[in-house]
Amino acid sequence: MNKTIIMCSALLVGTAMGASAKVNYPATKRVDTVDVYFGTRVADPYRWLEDDRSQETAQWVKAQNKVTQDYLARIPFRADIKKRITELANYTKWGTPFKVKDKYYYFKNDGLQNQSVLYVQDTMDGTPRVALDPNTLSTDGTVALQQINFSNDGRYLAYTITRNGSDWNEIYVKDLTTGQVLDDHIRWAKFTDAQWLGDGFFYSCYDEPESELSSKNEYHRVCYHRLGTPQSEDYVEFENKTAPLLFHQAIVMDDERYVCIEQSDGEATTLYVKDLKDRNPHYVKLCSSDRYSYSPIGVDGGKLFVFTNDDAPRWKVIAFDAEHLSAASRHDVIAQSDAVLSGAQLANHKFILTYDRDASSHPAVYSLDGKLEREIALPTFGSVGISCKKKDSEVFYSFTSYTFPTTIYAYDMATGKSRQLFAPQVALNPTDYVTEQVFYPSKDGTRIPMFLIYKKGLKRDGKRPVFLYGYGGFNVSMNPAFSYSRTPFAMLDMGGICAYTNLRGGGEYGEQWHDAGTQMKKQNVFDDFIAAGEYLIREGYTSKGKIACNGGSNGGLLVGAVVNQRPDLWGAAVPQVGVMDMLRYHLFTIGWNWARDYGRSDDSREMFEYLKGYSPLHTIHNDGTPYPPVMVTTSDHDDRVVPAHSFKYAAQLQASNTGDAIKIIRIDTNAGHGHGKPISKVIDEYTDIQAFIMYNLGVKYKYRKHK
Hints:
Elements: E1 5-6, E2 10-13, E3 28-31, E4 34-37, E5 40-43, H1 55-73, H2 78-89, E6 93-94, E7 98-100, E8 103-109, E9 117-121, E10 129-132, E11 143-150, E12 156-163, E13 168-175, E14 180-190, E15 195-197, E16 200-205, E17 221-226, E18 235-238, E19 247-252, E20 258-264, E21 269-275, E22 283-288, E23 294-300, E24 303-308, E25 316-321, E26 331-334, E27 340-347, E28 350-357, E29 360-366, E30 372-375, E31 383-387, E32 394-401, E33 404-412, E34 418-422, E35 433-441, E36 447-455, E37 466-469, H3 489-492, E38 497-501, H4 511-515, H5 523-538, E39 547-552, H6 554-565, E40 572-576, H7 595-598, H8 605-614, E41 630-635, H9 644-655, E42 663-668, H10 679-697
Parallel strand pairs: 37-38, 37-39, 39-40, 40-41, 41-42
Antiparallel strand pairs: 1-4, 2-3, 4-5, 6-8, 7-8, 8-9, 9-10, 11-12, 12-13, 13-14, 15-16, 16-17, 17-18, 19-20, 20-21, 21-22, 23-24, 24-25, 25-26, 27-28, 28-29, 29-30, 31-32, 32-33, 33-34, 35-36, 36-38
């Protein structure tokens, strides 16, 4: 690719042509920046907004936030929606228990705590004690716990934190016998936990970057830290100096005999294993592929079990001889089925396998030789999370669905019976709502599943306001789960509908479903989402202009694309932390890792033209085509999808002739891509999103207290 960048004199642009007379958008400077892709010149007038640390960008952010907050403040029921979301959030939330050296640990949030607290009990009905309270790590909840890992003797807890939502991690160690935090402190760790071995642990990291929030991350490696020593003395356990764009993760088996290294480009994996009891311990390459993934499950009965999609697009379990590690000892244990195998764990010397059927979890117990013993019954369709140990008969699991808040169960491997441990009391009555799964045809006839949630007695009068959410990428399955924030219960209570659609590009039906929404098939994802809106109209639920579309990250890209492609269909749009510049996404932080799903603008002329053809930033209309009201959201510390994507997109929206509907951007401060965000910030963000959507769909709301 022949690519040049030309930087010339700047000019100022005032109020966007076609913008509402009621809103004076901040003047956004334009620069004469041009990139040349395969002979095609592409202007990038807001390139300067990529410098998200500059004073000039900070002033732009401040001015945009003022316009946005002034607009949101005029919504008469905004405070009522905040009351409802706060009420929904204020319930005791339990995490799934797990055992460490005969003690039971679990996370619990009393209601509106910014971060959940780690508790420990000697027995399941014993007295709880605080093991670690992340709320003490910052005054505003912006320091969040990412991972916890216990030493095998149960004495030490390594905890990984993130600040302001960044992907960068720091690791600290707490002595659980004394309650003291040790001097050990690891910085510049990323995409990692702490895998204990002896008196130290493995972790993954990068070199210290020039810019913490935007520099490209390269040469991920595994290091080993011994307790009581400075990080400068840590040694490199595994790296690949010939391949800068790979991830490396150490996994230590629970008997500390085997150390596994996963080397991955984000999807395809090479699996190395070292037997520490070998006379000459060294890493053996067990599996390698440029297409398939391999993830170790554990060692039991002399076999190392591995979870893989190698020649199994719906995943399967394979095994190797653990006593004599070699690729030649590989054999299948559990073949792929008609459902997607989404999880595999060892418990009481058996497997617990979780299968997904039509985007809903179905766990089952299998013997180590692959025979089905029994299924684990669940209350309804939804999502399950399982906590278990290879040698223990006690299993714990969580279950959740759209109107079924996360509930914790104990499962007895001997009897096959479940008992409820913790059930939350939430300010809603689940029996007031209906959740149904429907299937609709996409543009090419592909059958797409979608969940609809609404109050009982809903009439299909073609006037129902609809909240439509989608993702469609990176092999991620959107299974049913309760959310006090994302699901707009205030709108449901006013006769609205919430729709979650399972688009191609996700993992709901295995690798073929994922592949059908990648690279030069990405348009399938947008077609699937548009077809969801058309189905809801055709079936009499709603009509044009009564549907709000929402999605985050890759889902933000989705919203940006479908608004450009079908602006007539939507009544409001909220793209959150979206990938909006498809020509330059790979140049920032970890963006290069998304190329397997998206392709890159420097791959070929054909790929460049395809990306440019749907890139939200580059396909905004400028001919007077009416757009729906749009509120873009991002965060100033998002180093996953850097805020420049949303900055440039919002600036271009405001400068384009797309009718009089509002186009604003909400920029959160001291926050990142979304993970670890304190509850207070979550409530504020989703108050604004739901208020914006309901206001622009013509839905009025008055708070009333729920029991």
